[in-house]
Amino acid sequence: MAVTKEQVMAALANVAAPDGSTLPQTRALSEVLVTDGKVFFSITVDAAAVKAWEPVRQKAEDAVRAVAGVQSALVALTAERSGGASRGPQPAHVATQPRAAGAPAAKPHAHQHGAPKEQPGIPGVNAIIAVASGKGGVGKSTTAVNLALGLRDLGLKVGMLDADIYGPSLPKLLAIKEKPKTIGGTRLIPIERYGMRVMSIGFLIDEETPMIWRGPMVMSALTQMLREVEWGTLDVMVVDMPPGTGDAQLTMAQQVPLRGAVIVSTPQDLALIDARRGIAMFNRVNVPVLGVVENMSYFLCPQCGTRSDIFSHGGARHEAERLGVPFLGEVPLHMTIREKSDAGLPVVATEPDGEHAKIYRDIAARVLAQLKGGGGAKAAPKIVIEA
Ligand SMILES: Nc1ncnc2c1ncn2[C@@H]1O[C@H](COP(=O)(O)OP(=O)(O)O)[C@@H](O)[C@H]1O
Ligand SMILES: [Mg+2]
Question: 133 in ligand 1 pocket by Cβ < 6 Å?
């Protein structure tokens, strides 16, 4: 017998909110998702009221589990900072329908194009940069990690935020198995790794959470990762963004007060078309594109050291020049990068004297120069990286 949403809602009608109304009557309840006997939803409440709501979350979970046919129930309590007109993280139930770009905004302050300029930064965090790609699997996370480590090597205090809802990679790439601890039950302490402070959406969203539910959840999770984490003082925070250029990415780019974006692309044409969309997306929300990294640019044979341009290398550099965004460098396709990366031992941290580490550090230096120059829009400088 399949469980229906109506049955779940009926069960939730017996759960009282702190003000005495029933849970479905409050605005706190997100879309309720029922798939194959698994039930998921979130309750989004004011950060100050989290304590009062935790028993409600527990009761809601128990009530849903008691419904015949329910195999599991996951109820997330997410905190929303109160603060009236000047800020407004989207409650999960609003975020279920991301607004199409250009459509009128219900809350214009938070969603207008150009909003990043008006967005409150994170106290103590000097600059937030996004690492993005037009599609998945191009090495965005690998690049983000090694770029962050490169910035660390330049003497900066660095944080990393894994916002890739579709495939959080930082737990794997940085071999993080522990969950972050909290202070006072609400503020999360980032995990320290290789001298960086790290938070991943993988810590907040259960691996089993179905894809369709991630979209609605992500705004509150993102807000939590930005605002409810003890980031401390950081020179730069590197954000591993979800791949793609759709509404979800656009909304996210608008939610995070970004100083700039780094686009990762492979040399193939298709990837470049996607990369172009990425650049257009950041332009639309007035986030400067700090530059393009060509990943898997050429193949370096681990045995003989011979270089082959298997993916018609050079496309990204050419494209960057054409679009007038800086070209940040090319990273070879190399077994060591893959092995180290997937083993949670990123090359910049574990082989700091190697040729790959040097490439990433050079990229980091160019990113830093862009940040210092406040740039991103100007023509690409000629950069030569010797292989
Ligand atoms: N320059 C590279 N050389 C070899 N393997 C790479 C390189 N960059 C990424 N990879 C590998 O490609 C796969 C996808 O990379 P990942 O960073 O997870 O991509 P994304 O975050 O874009 O999905 C991983 O197995 C990673 O180790
Ligand atoms: Mg990834």
Answer: yes
